[in-house]
Design a protein that fits this description.
By secondary structure, this protein is α+β, with helices and mostly antiparallel strands. Helix content is 22%, strand content 37%. It is built from seven helices and 26 strands. The longest helix has 22 residues, at 2-23. The two termini are 60 Å apart. 19% of the residues are buried.
């Protein structure tokens, strides 16, 4: 009976361990991408009009020439004419073209001033082409600019500003005019690229795909690339295979990394960080210099310094018979050396336990950064230490 209970307990333990492993996994679509399925960057130049006197100084050469060219295309001869306006701003336009985007679809655009415009509030972007890296026009942008803030200034130089007023966004502000050619349905080979390269995760991903999906062949190329060759069952139906691949959970393995930001005192540590046996003592040396100004006032009728005559008031009455007011500085220096207890950290403990123990003895985040750097220098930390 005892053996049966032990066997049953072992089976339950294994089942719980497998459940925990599956729970710690992540969907492939969240940790990897399909090769060739990506966004493409677009950029363009344009003019924002309708500003309430917050636009570029028209003396700027590119703004003046852009305005003159735009008016010329509208049939107005602007050659040799003086143009004065503060309601227009030259801007750069950026956007991302999604994969498989079709003609007529809408995408958001970001509008950024490149002149000395104070604000794009209330402006309207005129029709501007957006080009890709190959120089072809893939979208055309136009519409009202939203900046999500404001800027107000007074004549005396004071003012109030909320958010960044020289950058705005146009929601659905660009229409796609050209599609990217990608014959996805006829492909017979898929490439899966991990966002964070890792040999263990890549090997697990290849094994899980081979076990969960039939009629495919997988090959792990390197720490971030897995090639999937589909059989006849998925021929002409790559979308179905990609859908199956994206929703499979894979146990993710991460390297032990400790990230330190000394500018903000931020410490971020992974769960795989381990510490060898080490003794830690951290004492703070605090030096405080305090300086106060003291006024030394002479007593009544005190003698004046040698060589200085008494000060006489109206009618010859002596108003300063003697003495002199002197300002002195009193400096006090205090040195306080903190005495922390020696902390012994046994081998193999997690970084969470180390931080908990250090916090218990009153270590601040910035002191923790120094301690972790020293532990790494002593060779007692099994992790990659990164300082940003």
């Amino acid at each position: 009976m005892t053996n049966r209970v032990s066997l049953f307990s072992a089976i339950i333990a294994v089942a719980l361990a497998l459940t925990a492993a599956l729970a710690e996994g992540a969907r492939i679509k969240d940790i990897a991408s399909i090769g060739g399925v990506r966004e493409n960057q677009l950029i363009g130049y344009g003019l924002v009009v309708g500003l309430a006197g917050t636009g570029d100084d028209i003396k700027n050469g590119f703004t003046r020439e852009s305005l003159a060219n735009m008016l010329s295309r509208q049939g107005l001869a602007m050659k040799d004419k003086v143009i004065k306006s503060e309601n227009i701003a030259a801007v750069m336009i950026t956007a991302s073209l999604p994969p498989f985007a079709k003609i007529g679809s809408k995408i958001d655009v970001l509008v950024s001033s490149i002149g000395n415009a104070k604000s794009l509030l209330g402006g309207t972007l005129l029709m501007s082409p957006l080009r890709g890296a190959d120089g072809e026009v893939y979208a055309v942008a136009q519409g009202a600019v939203t900046i999500g803030g404001f800027s107000a200034a007074g004549g005396g130089g004071g003012g109030v500003t909320k958010n960044h007023t020289s950058v705005g966004r146009i929601v659905n502000g660009a229409s796609i005019e050209r599609e990217l050619i990608h014959d996805f349905e006829q492909t017979r080979t898929l490439t899966i690229n991990l966002f964070q390269p890792d040999f263990t995760t890549a090997n697990r991903l290849g094994q899980v795909l081979a076990e969960r999906i039939k009629d495919i062949e997988t090959k792990t190329i390197d720490s971030s690339t897995i090639v999937v060759k589909m059989g006849d069952f998925f021929s002409g139906n790559a979308i179905r295979l990609v859908s199956l691949i994206e929703n499979i959970d894979v146990p993710v393995d991460n390297a032990a990394v400790v990230v330190l930001n000394e500018k903000t005192g931020t410490v971020v540590m992974g769960e795989n960080v381990r510490i060898s046996t080490v003794a830690i003592a951290h004492g703070n040396l605090s030096i405080q210099i305090k300086e106060e100004a003291r006024v030394s006032q002479p007593l009544p009728f005190a003698p004046r310094p040698t060589g200085e005559p008494p000060v006489a008031g109206p009618g010859g009455v002596i108003v300063a018979p003697g003495g002199q007011t002197v300002v002195t500085k009193d400096t006090a220096v205090t040195v306080d050396e903190g005495k922390q207890q020696l902390l012994l950290v046994p081998q193999g403990v997690s970084i969470q336990e180390v931080v908990k123990a250090l916090n218990a003895i009153g270590v601040s985040p910035r002191d923790l950064i120094t301690i972790l750097q020293t532990i790494k220098a002593a060779g007692a930390m099994q992790a990659d230490l990164r300082i940003i």
